[in-house]
Amino acid sequence: MKHIVPHDFSVKKEQRNRLNGHGSFLIWFTGLSGSGKSTIANAVEAQLLERGIHTYTLDGDNVRKGLNTNLSFTPEDRTENIRRIAEVSHLMIDAGLVVLAAFVSPYAKDREAIQKIVGYTNYIEVFVNTPLEECERRDVKGLYAKARAGEIKNFTGIDAPYEAPVAPHVQIDTMKVTVANAVEQILKAIESKLNI
Ligand code: ADP
Fold it and tell me: Is residue 100 part of a domain?
């Protein structure tokens, strides 16, 4: 950008990581609404807290109600939603946090863009793979019933697409795996990034 010359701050991510005693990166949970993203992300965060890791969780509740309150669920706004979340995540990674983000994020190109923003090595993708029928059966927030009734438009899985990740770092089949097992799987996958 023109006329924006970055200041060379002397305190950098590496120093913050050293102070905290662990690395900072983003754990991105993608999957259908009701697949279990928030449940698993919260359980992972609780485990990390136990271990003295500095964390923050971003999800629809704290982002759509504030920063992204002006965005809808059209494809363009979904892309902008994810872009802003990725930028916030990038700042939080720089601040030394392990960021957990739980968003449907249905488009492969948007998930690709996140990696460009935060850096490929700072990104761990967790695909919470629960079949639509099961998410609809759970209908945690009653949203599927509303979408089927036509009260909600552009609802992922009903009248908007979900592009499943082809090569996620972690894949969780919540029909077969308990929340505790899912947490174990994820902790194993991030072990090397936590260690500095
Ligand atoms: P999302 O954040 O993906 O919209 P939630 O985490 O809010 O989904 O809801 C998922 C629901 O599925 C919760 O009620 C949770 O208790 C339930 N559930 C059942 N089995 C599992 C599992 N193995 N892993 C995660 N969630 C599960």
Answer: yes
- Distance CA(194)–CA(21), nearest Å, equals 9
Q: What is the pTM of this model?
A: 0.94
CATH number of the domain residue 73 falls in: 3.40.50.300
Q: Could you give the CA distance from residue 137 to residue 45 in angstroms, rounded to a whole number?
A: 27
**3 state SS of 47:** helix
Q: Which domain holds residue 45?
A: 13-194
Tally the domains of the chain. Answer: 1
Is 2 domain-assigned? no
Query: Is residue 146 in some structural domain?
Result: yes
Q: Whose CA is nearest to atom 17 of ligand 1?
A: 36
Residue by residue, pLDDT tens for the chain (196 residues) are 778 888 888 899 999 999 999 999 999 999 999 999 999 999 999 999 999 999 999 998 899 999 999 999 899 999 999 999 999 999 999 999 999 999 999 999 999 999 999 999 999 999 999 999 999 999 999 999 999 999 999 999 999 999 999 999 999 999 999 999 999 999 999 999 999 8
Ligand 1 pocket at CB < 6 A: 31, 33-40, 102, 128, 138, 140, 174, 177-179, 182
Give the residue numbers marked as catalytic: 105
Domain presence at residue 73: yes
In order of 51, 86, 90, 110, the CA distances from 116 in angstroms are 29, 9, 10, 10
Distance 34 CA to ligand 1 centre (A): 6
